[in-house]
Amino acid sequence: RSHSRSAEAPPPPSADRLWERAHPNEAWLLVAAARDGRQSFQMVNADIRLFYRIGLSDAAALDATYRVADPPALLRQAAGRVMAAFFAGRTLNAVLGDNREAMAGHLRALLQRDLDAAGSGLDLTAVVIDAIHPPGGAADAYHAVQAAQINAEASIDAERGRAQATLADARQSATALETDATATAVELTGTATADATRFAADRDAAASARDLVLFERRLARLVALIPKTDVIIMDNRISAADAPLIDLRPPPGNPADAIIGNN
């Protein structure tokens, strides 16, 4: 007979997986830990279900019938040994973080090997890990530790991001300074090369025609100064009768100033 359950009805006890509560079907297991630099252990609660059947061969059926008086008890004993050895070599974070399907497959292979060695004739069809968590009393403390670890890792990542940004800015600034220095060096080198070329040309010209070079420099100076100076050009070939008259007297002042001065 089937039973229907409303979607809003309370969940069955088998679906209760809250860490803060103890569950009757859970087993206590020891996992590896390190404390103060020394090897230690921690407790975890695990709800693991095993599904088995009698082997399909005649030999397996005979072994299960005549060599095993209580198959469930044998299976519980074998599971206790295998799981104790399995979890003792793993830390709490590894147990909680591992893929449960892969962990269940590993446990099934180890347990089946143990059953075969005992000649039980039993086939382990499935291992189902419903829950693995710290004990109910330590759940809050574990959550606090996990939260602190997450915050610490987030802070480390943030600082690494800022360090990378600072490094990128420093590299960009260094590249800009190097580029500016290279451009300045090229400009100064070009200027120095041009000056050296002009100096060599002047030296060679002065060695071959010194007077001509000096006259050329004089003309160059005049060409540079004439636009900035008031110049009067006189032709010495003009006769004295036709020569212009240049009045060098200062210009007369304001007549009103002269009248005021006389008074």
TrEMBL record:
- From which domain of life does this come? Bacteria
Topology term for the membrane = Single-pass membrane protein
Where would you find this protein in the cell?
Membrane
UniProt domain Band: residue ranges: 42-162
Task: Name the GO cellular-component terms.
Answer: membrane
PANTHER family per the record?
A: STOMATIN-LIKE PROTEIN 2, MITOCHONDRIAL
Q: What is this protein called?
A: Band 7 domain-containing protein
Task: Give the species this sequence originates from.
Answer: Rhodopila globiformis
